[in-house]
Amino acid sequence: MKDKIVLVTGAAHRVGASIVRHLHAQGAILVLHYRHSRKEALLIADELNEQRKNSVMLISADLHDEQSYMTMIDDIIFQYSRLDVLVNNASSFYPTLIGEVGMSQWDDLMASNLKAPFFLSQAAAPYLKHSCGCIINIVDIHADKPLKEHSVYCIAKAGLVMLTKSLAKELGPEIRVNAIAPGAIMWPENMSLEVKEEITGRTALKRKGDPEDIAKTVLFLARDASYMTGQILAVDGGRSLNL
Fold it and tell me: Could you state, in order of their start, the residue ranges of all structural domains in the chain?
């Protein structure tokens, strides 16, 4: 991964931040996208640029804005003249109860989880093709079996699974496209201990995962999986066996 140019969306905190740090440790040059989390993004950039000068670039963009996709890619090409890996990690997640869903919720969840990955991939494709690069989408185990009271989110992630497979077919042989489906990696805010124990009890490994587990899988798909495309890797401790 030395000197590979990697764009990670939603990279200022949680899983995105772990991906950035893990790939940076392998020698990659990171383009860290954020929307509102400027303070967190600056802290990560300062930390990593202190370790290796000019190794992290920050991009602020609202992925609901249709102009942002091409602008982000243009900025990266202007700075580095290439792009090797796109990690579509940015995501909105919250419940949507049937009978109460409004267009704003639909548009918000679709924009971050499906629209942005499609149009960013489309904008990045010419440059990824030139570098024989790859796209890695972060989906969800609930793209296959829905999570109650989260229908719009699950629909969007299911669309992202199909997008992964479609792009693999459309963009091969030069560009590989794969996805990671996390299970219980980071708990949502305000989740009770009882619910956490129930979820981990339904995994084969009887424990939750760690953001580093996703970051390691991103590295595998970016660096080592040269004969894999169109695949969805579940990183869930075996929870999808018991959904």
Answer: 5-187+210-237
